[in-house]
Amino acid sequence: RVENFRQRVIKFRLNGVLYGFDPNRIYSRIGIGQTLRDNRNYSLKAVLEIEKFAGRLLSLIPDTAKCLVALHNNTNDLFSIKSYIPGGIRQKDAKAVYYNETEDVDDIALTTDSLVYKVMADAGYNSIWQDNVKAKKDGSLSVYSGEKGIRYINIETEHGKVEQYRIMFEKLMAWLLNPPPQPVENPEEEKESTGAQNLLIIN
């Protein structure tokens, strides 16, 4: 658990210089460089220290984990489903988008996995299937997971909407723990089902 006094940006001093970084932009060197610049100070030594920190966090993910579930908050209208629809700033990051105009635009499910995308979209939630090849290499855990072939889903709601979190999370968990059987061409190649012991939830 990383305690940061309810602040998103993590700050640290190195050789007398104060650096800051977004902890969800540290899973690539490009992402680290950008988040350091966004927070005013950059140096290669700071990049290397943050890389060590990211590596430590990734080492905490068990090898048996089949799915990563992230729970995020956002600020009203700052980051939403509209970011991914045609004309949005992240349009190219999405392989498919389901936009339900009756839902709050700030409440979204973003995933690296087509099946998870379909489950959440069919349930009526604003949903994004990330393009794991073309998505901007921003250092986020979702892009890292997409590159590594890891099933990842981020449930994101506007600050304070705890009930919406709960509803979306329960829908996701109901499917992950009891997925319907999927037809396979070769039974010997059938993937293991995702059980509770194979989930990792990141808040």
What's this, in brief?
With 203 residues, the protein is an alpha/beta fold. It has helices at residues 29-38, 44-59, 114-122, 141-148, 162-177, and strands spanning 10-14, 17-21, 67-74, 94-98, 108-111, 126-130, 151-158, 199-202.
Structural overview:
The protein has 203 residues and is α/β, with parallel strands linked by helices. The chain has helices at residues 29-38, 44-59, 114-122, 141-148, 162-177; strands at 10-14, 17-21, 67-74, 94-98, 108-111, 126-130, 151-158, 199-202. The strands form two sheets. It has a six-stranded mixed β-sheet with strand order 4-6-5-7-3-8, with helices on both faces. A two-stranded antiparallel ribbon has the order 1-2. Helix 1 (29-38) crosses helix 2. The radius of gyration is 18 Å and the shape is globular. The relative contact order is 0.16. The model is unreliable at 187-191 (pLDDT under 50).
Helicity level = 25-40%
* DSSP summary, beta strand count: 8
| Unreliably modeled segments | 187-191
Radius of gyration, in Å, reads 18 Å
Strand order of the largest sheet: 4-6-5-7-3-8
List the helices and strands and how they pair.
Layout lengths: L9 E5 L2 E5 L7 H10 L5 H16 L7 E8 L19 E5 L9 E4 L2 H9 L3 E5 L10 H8 L2 E8 L3 H16 L21 E4 L1
Parallel strand pairs: 3-7, 3-8, 5-6
Antiparallel strand pairs: 1-2, 4-6, 5-7
